[in-house]
Structure formats: structure tokens, C-alpha cells
Design goal:
Largest sheet: 6 strands, parallel
Bound molecules: D-mannonic acid
Helix content: 40-55%
Shape: globular
Distance between the termini: 47 Å
Organism: Micromonospora fiedleri
CATH class of the largest domain: Alpha Beta
Number of helices: 21
CATH topology of the largest domain: Rossmann fold
Structural class: alpha/beta
Strand order of the largest sheet: 5-2-1-6-7-8
Radius of gyration: 23 Å
Keywords: NAD, Oxidoreductase
Catalytic activity: D-mannitol 1-phosphate + NAD(+) = beta-D-fructose 6-phosphate + NADH + H(+)
EC number: 1.1.1.17
Protein name: Mannitol-1-phosphate 5-dehydrogenase
């Protein structure tokens, strides 16, 4: 931090370059959206769309942002009058702008009842979520609720809720009791069929909590669960992100984020209490986001995970570095053209191979330093929708899943914990203990490791686990990766 640099707040706005100022007058737009999960992705995605929608079409759609646990972020945003900046970075260009979409911030861990009260507030008509896959506590392969002890306590006692599903269910029960008007709950996480999964989560959790019939019926009639596809590459902020924002703004912004120029939001139009005019900001409102979501999860995120695991094993720090590994781009192109594109029907008018080319160009953006280890996190929660469903659909159609099998093999090798140069790799995953135990108990051979991972039934769909050809393909790749390492495996592929 530069000593003496003043910080971003309402008073600093008039000193900013004109093109760096918010599109709306901060603090003047009453709250209509409650957002759970104040991470970098929300700040560079939904907050930007919502600000633009309000600037263009008006409406009481200020966002109250709730951080589940990040007390520092809430402190910083409060000191900055809820302002933060987004820097848009490409090789050729950079631009920084302050976003005025936040009407307030809350820390759920410190004041869960305030969040419950907001969920029951008639002014709040839309709730968006970016809480990461694992916070839903759904079994990643099938989507059934697997409540941990904290969620069980949230659902079966009167103590203040500490989990995301606990907050949602308590809030909806309070809203139903107050008959506070219809609302939409919008998952903006990379889950498969995220709207349907969130609806299922709420229904299961209400049943678990033995909610009264009347409340269950109220939720059935008054709550929408639109599915969405969200897309923008937004790495975790670093000291360089903050330093670059300071250079652009002339003031300190400790909540600054940096993102790529590309951004996309496809939303099912199911908002019984109304919504911001997001289409005015470029979002696509539609009846079924499913084809868009499969396109993005399989082509972008599946290939991202492939680059992350292979890159991390080869010692690459960022995704852009990984893309520069000899032959990796060729292998990823074949993964897209031969496996991903053959696994599903894309949205009308979209060519998966062209979309994949655009994705690879985005991954190569040298101005975005997205760490391979960040994308590699939580593989057990990500791989079903990113690669295992691709494998399942290819095999159901009688096709090979040769390249997709490489991604699974790379994850297994990553989970074994050692990079090609002997360095230790961290397994940051909610199922880390289970994965490690399964690998430790298995015969210490590639086939043993593959069998152990295929047997993780909350991650691997049963038809994939039972498929001898898939098992053979993954074992062959893992044998190569173990014997020779990533670079020779890619060269020989
Ligand atoms: C990434 C995503 O971290 C990850 O797992 O694959 O966060 C990705 O950057 C976004 O989904 C892009 O929209």
C-alpha cells in the first residue's frame, strides 16, 4: 500500500477520470437484489450487468452484497462506501472503471439474522448466488443433498444459520410467514442445470427442516429458480491487481478486481417479482439456458480444468503459461473437436469448434494471470459437469472418450500430489480426505488409482464407473503421465 494514497470512496469520485466513474450515482439506487458471495467473479460480472441495466432502464435494483465469511472484504467495502473497480485487461488494452451497483454489504458470519431479514424484505425481489459449487452441499454427480453437520443444525434447530442453504431456507420460511411477495433465486455458479439444482436443494432442505405444508406451498407458488449460464474469466485479485487499479484511479482500491474483456450471461426469464433490465447490458434472456450451459461447462470449463491439471503437473504457474506448453493446444483442440463437440447439441447457430477456438484465445490472454492451482481447486465438485457428463454422453452414443479420459487421468495424477519435477501439489478439495484415503488404500499402480477414483460414487456417475473402455483409456493415460510426465505424453499423443 502506498503511504499517503487516499482511498476510493464517495469523496474521491469527482477526482477520477470521467471514464472511470460509475454509471449510476452510488448510494441513490434502493436495494432490490440480494447477492450471496461477494467474490471477484460477482464484482466483475453480475454487479457490472446490474449497474448498466439500472443506468439504462432505471429501477430499484441496487445490490446488497453478502459475504458469507470474508470479514476483511466487508470492512474494506464499507470503508470505500461500497465502491470497487473492475479493470478489463487484454494484451493490447486496459481500462478501469468504478462500479456503483452495491447498495450495501453484510457479513453473514457476523449477522446471519440480518441476511434472513433481507430475504424476507418485500423490497428484495431477486437473490443471486456465486458461492462456488461446494457451498450447495449437493452430491456433485447426482445433485442430491448431502448436508454436513452445520447444515443439519441450521435446518433442525433455532440457532442462527451458518451455511448458505441454511440462510436461504430460514429466509424463505420468514418470507413465507410474512407473505412478503414473490422472489427469484438465481444460481450463478457453474453447476449443471443450476436453476433446477437450486430448486431441488431448497425443496430437500425444506423437507429436512420439516417445514410446515403452508410454507412449502408458498415457496412452490412464489419462488422462481431461473437457470443461468455465466461467463467471464476473473482470477483472484493479487497485490498486482491492486497496484494496477491504484495507477489507473490515483486512489487506493483494496477491493479491485481484474477481468478479461469477454463477458456473457444467459438467463432463463423466470422472475415472478420482476428483475433488472439485464438485456440492456447485453444479457440474453431465454426460456431454456440448458444448451448454453452445457456448451460453456463442457467447452470452456472442461478445457480449463484440462489445462489446469496438465499445466500444474508440468510446473506452469498460469493457464496462459500452460497453453504455451508444446502440443497442449493441439491436444485441447482435439478434445474439443473429437469429444466435447460430439457429446451434446449446442444452441442453435453455435459451432462448438469455433466457440472452442475463442475459448483457447481467451485462455492465452497474457494480461490475465489465472493460476493453474486456482482452477485446479475443488475438482471433485467440478469434474462431473465439466468432463464426466461428456464421457457419459459420448459412451451412451457408442463413441470413444479418448481425450476426455486424459483429463480424468490428469486429475488423478494431480490428486496423487506430486508434479513432474517432484514438487508437492496441494489438493484443495472438500473431498480431499476421501480421495487421499481411496488412493492410499488402492494398489499403488495406475490401474489401482483409476479404480479407486472411479469408485467415488458421489463424483463419478455409475455408468462411467462401470465402463471397461473408459477405465482402460484413463489407465493408459495415467500410465504415460506417471512414467514419462506431461511433456512427453503430449508429444506422443
Ligand atoms: C474456472 C472458472 O476456476 C475455475 O474453475 O474454470 O472460474 C472460469 O474461469 C469461469 O467459469 C469463466 O466463466
Amino acid at each position: 500500500m502506498t503511504v499517503g494514497a487516499s482511498r476510493l470512496d464517495l469523496g474521491a469520485l469527482r477526482r477520477l477520470p470521467a471514464d472511470a466513474r460509475p454509471l449510476v450515482e452510488p448510494g441513490t439506487v434502493p436495494a432490490g437484489v440480494l447477492h450471496l458471495g461477494l467474490g471477484a467473479f460477482h464484482r466483475a460480472h453480475q454487479a457490472v450487468y446490474t449497474e448498466q441495466a439500472v443506468a439504462s432502464a432505471g429501477g430499484d435494483w441496487g445490490i446488497v452484497g453478502v459475504a458469507p465469511r470474508n470479514a476483511d472484504l466487508v470492512r474494506v467495502l464499507t470503508a470505500q462506501d461500497n465502491l470497487f473497480s473492475v479493470s478489463t485487461l487484454s494484451a493490447a488494452d486496459r481500462h478501469t472503471r468504478v462500479i456503483g451497483a452495491l447498495a450495501g454489504v453484510r457479513l453473514a458470519a457476523a449477522d446471519p439474522q440480518a441476511v434472513v431479514a433481507l430475504l424476507a424484505d418485500p423490497a428484495i425481489r431477486v437473490v443471486t448466488l456465486t458461492v462456488t459449487e461446494k457451498a450447495y452441499q449437493l452430491d456433485p454427480a447426482g445433485g442430491t443433498l448431502r448436508p454436513d453437520p452445520a447444515l443439519v443444525a441450521d435446518l433442525t434447530s433455532d440457532r442462527p444459520p451458518v451455511t448458505v442453504p441454511g440462510l436461504l431456507v430460514r429466509g424463505l420460511l420468514a418470507r413465507a410467514a410474512a407473505d412478503a411477495g414473490p422472489i427469484a433465486l438465481v444460481s450463478c455458479d457453474n453447476l449443471p442445470a443450476n436453476g433446477r439444482r437450486l430448486r431441488g436443494l431448497v425443496q430437500h432442505a425444506l423437507a429436512y427442516a420439516q417445514a410446515p405444508r403452508q410454507a412449502v406451498d408458498w415457496v412452490g407458488a412464489q419462488v422462481g429458480f431461473p437457470g443461468t449460464m455465466v461467463d467471464r474469466i476473473v482470477p483472484a485479485s493479487t497485490t498486482e491487481t491492486l497496484a494496477a487499479a491504484r495507477r489507473a484511479l490515483g486512489v487506493e482500491d483494496l477491493a479491485a478486481v481484474a477481468a478479461e474483456p469477454y463477458t456473457q450471461w444467459v438467463i432463463e426469464d423466470d422472475f415472478p417479482g420482476g428483475r433488472p433490465a439485464w438485456e440492456r447490458a447485453g444479457a440474453v434472456l431465454c426460456a431454456d439456458a440448458g444448451p448454453w450451459e452445457r456448451l460453456k461447462l463442457r467447452t470452456l470449463n472442461g478445457v480449463h480444468s484440462a489445462a489446469a491439471y496438465l499445466g500444474a503437473l508440468a510446473g506452469c504457474e498460469t493457464i496462459a503459461d500452460a497453453l504455451a506448453l508444446p502440443h497442449l493446444a493441439t491436444v485441447l483442440r482435439r478434445l474439443i473437436a473429437e469429444d466435447v463437440a460430439a457429446s451434446f447439441t449446442p444452441p442453435e447457430g453455435v459451432d462448438v469448434v469455433d466457440y472452442g477456438e475463442q475459448v483457447l484465445a481467451r485462455f492465452g490472454n497474457p494480461a490475465i494471470r489465472h493460476r493453474t492451482l486456482q482452477v485446479a481447486m475443488d475438482g471433485s465438485q467440478k469434474l462431473p459437469q465439466r468432463i464426466l457428463h461428456t464421457i457419459a454422453d459420448l459412451r451412451a452414443g457408442g463413441r470413444s472418450a479418448h481425450w476426455a479420459a486424459l483429463v480424468l487421468a490428469a486429475w488423478i495424477r494431480f490428486a496423487q500430489g506430486t508434479a513432474d519435477d517432484g514438487r508437492t501439489l496441494p489438493l484443495d478439495d472438500p473431498l480431499a480426505d476421501r480421495i487421499r484415503a481411496a488412493l492410499a488404500d488402492a494398489p499403488q499402480t495406475p490401474a489401482g488409482a483409476v479404480d479407486a477414483v472411479l469408485a467415488l460414487d458421489e463424483v463419478v456417475p455409475p455408468e462411467v464407473a462401470a465402463d471397461a473402455q473408459v477405465r482402460a483409456d484413463v489407465t493408459a493415460w495415467l500410465t504415460d503421465l506417471t512414467r514419462h510426465g506431461v511433456r512427453p505424453t503430449l508429444t506422443a499423443a
